[in-house]
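Sharing a chain and its predicted structure for anyone who wants a worked example. Both blocks are below, sequence first, tokens second.
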Amino acid sequence: MAESRLSETRRSSSGGAAASALSKVTSRFRSSARSVGLSGLDSISGLGVERRPAIILEIGTAYTKCGFAEEGTPRHIVPTSVEINGKPCKVFDLEEQRSKEELREILVHFLYKILYQRLLVNTKDRRILVSESLMGTTKYRSVLADILYRHYFFASVLFAPTSLFALLPCGSESALVVDCGYAECSVIAVYEGTPLIGTLQTVQNASKLIHDTIKAKLQAMNVPEEDLADEKTLEDIKVRACFVKPKGGNLNIPTFTYRFPSGYAVELDSEFRTSVCEVLFEGFDIDDESISGAILDSILRCQIDIRKEIASKILLCGGTCMIPGFRKRIAQELLELVNEKRYSKLKGSMAKRCVLQIELSTSGEKIDSLTLDGDRNRLIDEITSKLPKCHISESEMNESEGEKVDCTVITHGDPNEDELKGALSVGQRTYVISQVKKREESYSTGVKFALFAKDFPSNYMSWLGASMFGALETFSDRSTQREAYLKLGSLPDWCTAATLSD
């Protein structure tokens, strides 16, 4: 039932491998910066920087993706941790407050591993694009920028939000981006290439919560503590054994035997394999939201005139979204939760509208589809002028038999067919309304949910968009040059049009 009501939004660039699709979509965006909301900026050339591919870096809480611009996949996906003096250190330790000096030491070692041991590049006078979370701290951003400019001598650096980059592979300027990673799930609406900060919602329902649930269940099964100490083991169990079950249903999954590195084996039954992911869709108290609740709250925070468009373009990205059954469950949760009273503005109500089927003739003049496309808007204007008390919300025109045009118009109001009689003058052509049929139909005023098709792996969707953006000429416009940073010692925010030269 959920699939029949929840449609799939397809990308304009369909296809197979990510690399081939990347080249098609990149060429589409190369000539126009408008696709990322930068149509008012001119590209800058002659910056004295060699045209080597920019480095693309996305540092996540659990994993870091790194590679080069114009490539379809990251070169490496590595854990966001580094070994210092024989001791493993996480770059983002959720339970430890670090000073700037401690954070700097960890980031210097971590970037050395990424840049010199993995990518094998000389960073001097190189360009780099860093895809960052909107929830990142100012301290982390400032320390990372200082290291890139002063320690590794990058010629230019650009920090930009992952939510914006995730849209580029989809070929869309507007969507609701649901980024479900390791530590948290963030939801934000992007409209015409601009993240709407007021719609940002975050919940802790993410992979870390699943790992904690797996650990607690295994402890109840008397699994030795030493086998549960490594986070990689918990993640391995999640990836190899766990599923998201349909809401209100069960999956008949066979028992899975998992063997720990120590040799200890445990039997994971169907209930275990399907129940650990339920924490993603639960709120823990009256103030907590599930992922589906955060999605609806974010849509509700949008302006009323863009809610329908945002709700019909929901993009799921992040590694947690790759768990089997996740997409289907999100669809079911949205369709059920929208019925609650607090979301009545999204559900709307049933209303009636009028559908006019109008037949236009051209008095013997041949009309082809190209001519009709040119006259379409003026024809609608002429029809609107004859129906001053009605608002036309949708229209469709098709050429028929060369001398006729079939026009379908949906209006809100009760138009009088007699008012449409007569001729419509469009330039040197005259269209005559030969027949009008009116019927009434019911429709819902609420939003309709739709998910983007799963055409690229969700775990590096944002990195792929950053790779595409790094191939555009406008990348140089938005980057901050090293000379400008060393002069002022700060970076502009992506959400403003300000530059350091201003």
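Comments welcome. The CA atoms of residues 412 and 423 lie 23 Å apart.
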